[in-house]
Amino acid sequence: MALEIHQREREGVVILELKGRITAGGEATALREKVAAVSAAGPTNVVLDLVGVDYIDSTGLGALVMCATSLRKNGGNVKLLNLNRRNIELLVMTKLATVFEIFTDELDAVSSYYPDRKVKTFDILDFVQRMNKEG
Amino acid sequence: MLDGDVRELRRLAASIESFCRERGLGDDVAFDLNLALEELFVNAVKHGGCRGMESAARVRLELVEGGVAVEIADRGAPFDPTAAPAPDLGTPLAARAAGGLGIHLVRQVMRDVRYARTGGWNRVTMRRHL
Which residues from chain A sit within 8 angstroms of residue B6, using beta carbons? Predict the structure, then answer.
């Protein structure tokens, strides 16, 4: 399935809703190009809503890393929203879970760009402990 | 048989899904099989010289006692994934290269990963425990 990307904005933050797979078959490139396009005008804060993404491979993880580095280099950032359990496990296995902020609520993800707001981030430590118990 | 084209990933994923569905294997098993096989196939296409090659790779899945026995073979340049160095996962984000994580993920989700080079084929066998 090709990666569908729907763009909208909330309180100055670009939300990219992704649906499909982020893999080597061209989808990872599509994501990188989309992020490059939305951030072309200057520093951009992005939330990637991955609720519709059932699968990410190592090329897809590489694309997420490249999106983060290019946005941060330009003074923006990217936060991840609504990852499924297996995709979080991939981030943990590759130690990328510690370099991305992960959220389960869109308002929290958007609010995280506003330092004066209280937000609830995904508890990755708790997730890893549960993963180890189950594993 | 898969041709040397990453667009074959969709066909590979569909085959894995039907294998798992027909045998009542759960989504987690399908996810891991997908992950390992896609990583090795993409490696062969992108780095092993299989790009554009007809019948570049073949995949076999078999339900055995306690798991799924998996074999993927490709006609690319000799490459032993069991000998590939582990990635440095402590590298700061800005210094991380895109990719390079695939073999690491294969090792994480599969067991008994073995490699042989026979008759011009890279042959990787492994097992996903149930």
Answer: 24-26
